[in-house]
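Anyone have tokens for Heat shock 70 kDa protein 12A? Sequence:
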Amino acid sequence: MPTKVEGDLNTKTKTILRQFKLHLDEGYSKDPLPVQVDLIRAIADYLKAMNSHVKGKIMNDNHDSYNQQDFRYCLTVPAMWSERAKNSMRQAALLAELINDFDHPDRLLLVTEPEAAALYCQLKCTQFDLGHKDRFMVCDAGGGTVDLIVYEVEKTNEGTFLSEVTKGHGASCGSIFLDQNFKRLVQEKFSSQGVTLEPKPLNKIVENFVEHVKPIFESDSDHALDLPVGAYLSQVRDPEAIEILDGSMLFSRKELESRVFDPVIEQVYSLIDQQLSSARDCTAIILVGGFGASNHLLARVRRQFEGLGIKIVRAPRPELAVVRGAVYAALKPKIVTTRVSRQCYGIRINMRFREGIDGPLDRKEFSHGSYCHNRFKCLVQKGQKVQTDECISTTIMCRKGTSNDVLLPIYAFSGDGETPDFIHSKGMYRLADIRVKSAFSPSDPLDTKLEYQFKMFIGRNEIKSVVLLKGEEYAASIDFDSEQADNKNK
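Reply: yep, here.
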């Protein structure tokens, strides 16, 4: 998604929103948006405008031979995003009318950006031949985030497939942070001359850096940037001290490398190190994404890691790897057969009360004994390999009550170490509620019982669920925004 959108906020002026998709990442410390605006609405407005443009182009080129319902959509998301953030993208797509509530869930696919890039690389990278059981890392260095994941190639009679070796992870350290570092450098230079730059000239200088320096920077030459004309230039006490000459400002390769590029590239090093420590025998690292197209990033990663016997290459047209990979994912969504669980998932259960172990507040008395009603039952461990079509099933018995919904709360544990025994343990939180309409009839007595079988698919890019009752399948929704669900979904 491009990093800016224009929105009419019912005023006489318009406000440009930049990099607003990053605000869905709960772990990213960011400045507030410049105006009060609903984030999901802003994303939906962008998607709606983009969809209208693309649909119009397709219809014009194909003489209106397509129906809106013929389209399948595939949206890419960072690997580090939480289930809640991914669900917010789905809600934005609904709000943008790309899909509706009655569509099959697979009419809109969400795929992580490094996974989309991996599909592209597996088809388009000819620099080396990946054989059965070979492993490769995709480093998707984009504008806002850098996402990484390691895949293993599986060659079978049915074709070539990919299996996750490590759980994808990343950080907000994409190329826009180069822009921020450069902006601070410029402000410091002018501040040393007693000049506080106004936003307009400052933003123009940063734009010149983005267009003329960032794409071609290599650590063997200095760079001069044209400065916008303005009164601020006459306020500089000693232009030569900050290397201003004839309306241009010189930036040395040393300061650009140390002040602008190094802080970001060192974060990329750290992310690659973490992946390599989790995945042995990695054959290659493939750089993709807009930042992945940087010659400087490629040279630095090679300098850092080629000594380990790993081949570092850049995918052809790296800036298009994710979007083209998303098309491949939509055409053949089952190329990835196994994924690694990002965290531990489970449910709350009642178990026999253990004196001296279970807390007194967790005790609940029943006619047939004392039970601890806040015990955690793990369904999928963090780091566990899960087949994409693997069904994890649990059954709950419900009595007829006053609610119109049957709920199965899903809990997640994001920490490391042993899985806790209780749902209120540190690091445990209520991720979401799986909801299905109650099947009790008005004539059923209050003590009527029904057995619901909840079937969950956690190995996909989004958690999916269906419910079986008396052999029939019922549609289930996953609510990340219920009053009970923890607002710190991860």
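The longest strand covers residues 369-380.
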